Amino acid sequence: MHTSIADILKQNQLSVTGSRTKILELFQQTGGALAHADIELKTGEQFDRVTIYRTLQTFVEKGIIHTIPTADNSVLYALCKDQCSEGHHHDNHIHFICDDCGTTYCLEQVAIPEVRLPNGFTKKQTDVVVSGLCNKCS
Amino acid sequence: MHTSIADILKQNQLSVTGSRTKILELFQQTGGALAHADIELKTGEQFDRVTIYRTLQTFVEKGIIHTIPTADNSVLYALCKDQCSEGHHHDNHIHFICDDCGTTYCLEQVAIPEVRLPNGFTKKQTDVVVSGLCNKCS
DNA sequence: AAACTATTGCAACTTTGTTGCAAATATTTT
DNA sequence: AAAATATTTGCAACAAAGTTGCAATAGTTT
Ligand SMILES: [Mn+2]
Ligand SMILES: [Mn+2]
Ligand SMILES: [Zn+2]
Ligand SMILES: [Zn+2]
Hints:
Two copies of one chain form a homodimer.
Chain A: H1 5-11, H2 18-30, E1 34-35, H3 36-42, H4 49-62, E2 65-68, E3 76-79, E4 93-98, E5 104-111, E6 122-133
Parallel strand pairs in A: 4-6
Antiparallel strand pairs in A: 1-3, 2-3, 4-5
The structure holds manganese (II) ion (2 copies) and zinc ion (2 copies).
Chain A binds a DNA duplex through residues 14-20, 36-37, 47-51, 53-55, 75.
């Protein structure tokens, strides 16, 4: 079973364009997370900065990719593997950032742990970012 | 027992200056987390932007304040309440961001939960950011 | 293939953060 | 309490990151 990139775009009511196809392709090839600058580089500057911003924004809105909070407050994006849809993300996994090689992993196998909040606090979303050494660097 | 702001600065081998005193004062008064822009506003623009950047950087290095990762990747700072020191932060608590009022809390009472990583991954630091409604807004 | 719709690239701009350096301030020494 | 020294500050200039309006272009529908 293999969903083509064009199909993914059509499923999300997006027209199939060069930039969208290329950027989605990049995410699939890379596996890991990408920053805006990575994409600019790896696409060989064939697209305008603004187009990349807008494409990423659209993908996030459609639930195709999700953002990852990082300790150094840079913006990272990765493919959603769960059942994310327009306006509703369900990415119940933690993120891991390797201090050595810099790669960011979506650890789908590792569920978000439960946290007990003080009285009066209501939990909506929990983000967990772990840093250390990845399996390739340790 | 009451440590004055000047004493905190001296304990960290920092000279006591207007901006450092004022900014540290602000953190103590506010309790919660502050962004660079908040500080610029609340000090009534009496200090240069660059001075605020440098002061925050110095405070982080000295272990007086710590940064807080956020889902929207803005940079937040809050006072360290634990035994943080030069180059070594020990802030073992989770952070909570209220979706309504925007306040960010250091929940010192709530410990960082343990996460089990896949084979080969080594954990160094775990950041947990919970969002929802705070005790004042729910 | 014409008509229509959505996306792209460009230009111009804003916001955020960084760096070098001289002037001002804080600390130490005399 | 001055003078000498060390540190910090503000300014200017710059770099990086992100946003917006709009006409040209590319994609989709009929
Ligand atoms: Mn992820
Ligand atoms: Mn905190
Ligand atoms: Zn690694
Ligand atoms: Zn609130």
